[in-house]
Amino acid sequence: MKGFHGYADMVALGKPSVVAQQIAAILKRTTIVQRDLDYTFYPHFHPYVGRLVDELVERSVKGLQASDTATPVWQESLLTTQKYAPTSMVKTPYPVKDLDFSISGGYSVYNWELFYHVPLTIAIHLSRAGRFAEAQRWFHYVFDPTDDGPGETPQRFWKVKPFQTAEV
Question: What are the structural domain ranges in the chain?
């Protein structure tokens, strides 16, 4: 029996074909599949743009560059029970507003640029131009080995949040 594009015809000359009978038998069976669903939420916005601009305006570049390691840590929950009341289908930990530097963060590339790449690029440019005092100030926004403040060594020397918590 010939079919169209390799498929057997369902009915040949008024009689159901063998394939049609097999398909009918399969369709009469019912299968119930149970699945457990859960959801993970990720923020895809930068929650602290306004605060970072305020830091820049009020405390200059030094204040802005210090804001990623500021104490207390800027972190607020996004899925509060007053607003959303997440059920058990929402996986924990719930998303939080923070200065995210993770690989999967929706705005973490921006934070890396702001707190690491921009100061380092400016410092390298100033150093190449022979403006060493200014370059050192910009290098110290990333790493300051002269910091004698409180905190553990070498973590306190790093001025970029992910480097302070990285395992050495």
Answer: 1-34, 49-165
